[in-house]
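quick q for whoever's on today - can somebody do inverse folding on this one?? i tried earlier but teh output was garbage lol. tokens:
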């Protein structure tokens, strides 16, 4: 599979920009991911995407973008391009060449530290958000990085920002690569960074009620910085904004969720609240003996992202320390959690059980990727299943 970056010329006319998707399609390319304000990642088998001289395009390449400063990009676009360039580098190849923890159980990374207080471990159960019912169509991701005061342990370096963006993209790419054709899965991403004045949080007792106590102090100022409400209404407002806009390449979103990256001391390494369409990733170990992404390995951040994203669309944990059950039902289609490893000798490798680039049939069904009657239309959008 070939992959290209296409940087749009935002000074072009609307008519010129509107014509870009058809130019890409003429070469057999598919817009796999779009970033605001104007970056496209395009995929295709043996793709030779020669768009030189096409109006509306500033740059197109399958390699690292050269002479970025000469392109006069806005800050967000330049950050996305830097992340792409990192993904094409030897440093990234070295990072992911031999992942030392690949295949290890999620519980091996310290998730058991919390599960005595969290019956569902990595995942806080709840009804599915109306903005993220099944993983079919075009999915908007609000990638929201929260930086703390300069000089504090809550500040992200530029390299860490590039890592967060690129590995999030690789998590999306993994989901696209395993999705059935009928899912027609694409991602569109809005990256934003808030810098807030909140100092690193003091140590708190680890208990379930600490989720909101630890999240609100950094989440709410970050939301307010973008004119959003505080708390869950602000997250929902952001998801609705993601749904209502038109994205680069003319895409519109069917579903939306928000992923926060933070170095603040959260109550868990990574957790998803499916009813709110939200994932929180604690990028680093900060206090209290909690381990963030480094024990998993930065090479595994893509699978942490994919795991949390699957939760948002109804997939359930399958590792022992999550106290899963094969009798539990998950997702829009209420599919049994049959790959839960508790007392289950038939449990297989899966991103919901291991740091693994695999997916099991239970997770497939829970995110909506079932076609019960074999008509090529996935069950959640099949009128023969659920009516018009």
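ok took a stab at it. sequence:
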């Amino acid at each position: 599979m070939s992959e290209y970056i296409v940087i749009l010329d935002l000074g072009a006319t609307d008519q010129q920009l509107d014509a870009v998707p058809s130019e890409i399609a003429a070469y057999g390319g598919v817009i796999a991911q779009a970033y605001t304000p104007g970056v496209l990642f395009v995929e295709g088998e043996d793709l030779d995407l020669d768009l030189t001289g096409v109006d509306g395009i500033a740059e197109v390449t399958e390699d690292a973008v050269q002479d970025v400063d000469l392109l006069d990009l806005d800050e967000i676009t330049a950050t996305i391009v830097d992340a792409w360039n990192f993904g094409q580098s030897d440093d990234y190849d070295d990072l992911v060449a031999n992942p030392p923890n690949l295949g290890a159980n999620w519980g091996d990374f310290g998730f058991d530290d919390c599960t005595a207080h969290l019956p569902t471990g990595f995942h806080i159960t709840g009804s599915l958000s109306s903005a993220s019912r099944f993983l079919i169509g075009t999915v908007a991701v609000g990638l929201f990085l929260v930086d703390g005061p300069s000089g504090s342990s809550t500040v992200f370096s530029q390299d860490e920002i590039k890592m967060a963006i690129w590995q999030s993209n690789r998590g999306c790419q993994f989901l696209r690569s395993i999705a059935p054709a009928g899912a027609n899965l694409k991602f569109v991403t809005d990256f934003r960074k808030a810098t807030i004045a909140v100092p690193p949080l003091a140590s708190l007792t680890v208990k379930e009620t600490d989720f909101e106590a630890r999240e609100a102090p950094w989440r709410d100022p970050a939301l307010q910085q973008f004119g959003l409400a505080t708390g869950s209404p602000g997250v929902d407002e952001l998801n609705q904004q993601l749904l209502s806009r038109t994205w680069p390449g003319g895409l519109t979103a069917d579903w939306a969720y928000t992923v926060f990256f933070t170095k603040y001391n959260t109550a868990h390494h990574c957790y998803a609240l499916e009813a709110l369409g939200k994932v929180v990733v604690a990028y680093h170990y900060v206090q209290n003996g909690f381990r963030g992404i480094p024990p998993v390995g930065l090479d595994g951040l893509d699978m942490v992202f994919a795991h949390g994203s699957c939760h948002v669309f109804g997939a359930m944990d399958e590792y022992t320390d999550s106290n899963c059950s094969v009798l539990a039902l998950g997702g829009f289609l209420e599919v049994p959690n049959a790959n839960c490893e508790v007392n289950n000798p038939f449990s297989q490798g899966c991103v919901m059980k291991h740091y693994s680039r695999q997916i099991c049939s239970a997770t497939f069904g829970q995110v909506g990727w079932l076609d019960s009657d074999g008509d090529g239309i996935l069950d959640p959008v099949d009128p023969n299943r659920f009516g018009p």
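fwiw Confidence is low (pLDDT under 50) at residues 112-126, 285-295. also The chain has two domains: 2-76, 106-366. so keep that in mind when u check it
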